[in-house]
């Protein structure tokens, strides 16, 4: 039946690869949001509790007066520096999430069987994505490294270290490294999907030629 043929598509190699792409895009979105973090800022109110109070012991209780105000300023400036690149990464991750979902839907509806040229279009789009991922990753990592090498980050790191706080180093953290690795994996998945699209195009073309030969 038609419904059965549609469900069978989800068991093909191309569909499995596309579902992996969806998972990678979701993880890129999550890592990008973690990279952005929150506006943060020095609270100066240990009585409020909260995550910083329990994580760093006293909600920045080591700061007072001018140091507290400076910590707040540096937190906000550092957050604003990272915000554009984090938003851009999340936007790219969102686009990478939408595309495989659309391609899966097209496959389930069996559009490639009725319009085989779609597989060539799909192959071309995947190649463009794979090639475009390389400069996107370079821009992402280069921008983050520039932020971590900025005077704002260096001063912020020194200020927190002077009070005995850790975790404010000017270097890539786990979520940002993970986002870069996930981007590389996504690029490889796109190339694999491009190859599978070409293979399926040949298969569909051969199957459509059989009735003519008979």
Structural write-up:
This protein has 214 residues and is mainly alpha-helical. Helices cover 79% and strands 0% of the residues. The protein has helices at residues 2-9, 13-36, 51-56, 66-108, 111-114, 117-148, 151-162, 174-213. α2 packs antiparallel against α4 (66-108), α2 (13-36) runs antiparallel to α8 and α4 (66-108) crosses α7 (151-162). Mean pLDDT is 82; it is low at 39-59.
Features of the shown structure:
single chain; 214 residues; mainly alpha; 0% strand; rod-shaped
Global geometry: rod-shaped
How much β-strand is present in the residues? under 5%
- Number of E-state strands: 0
Mean model confidence by pLDDT: 82
- What are the secondary-structure elements, in order, as H or E? HHHHHHHH
Structural class: mainly alpha
Q: Cα-atom Rg, whole angstroms?
A: 24 Å
User: What distance separates the N and C termini?
Assistant: 24 Å
Biggest pleated sheet: none
What would you say about this model in short?
The chain is mainly α and 214 residues long. It is built from 8 helices and no strands.
Task: Break the fold down into its secondary structure elements and pairings.
Blueprint: H1 2-9, H2 13-36, H3 51-56, H4 66-108, H5 111-114, H6 117-148, H7 151-162, H8 174-213
Helix pairs in contact: 2-4, 2-8, 4-6, 4-7, 6-8
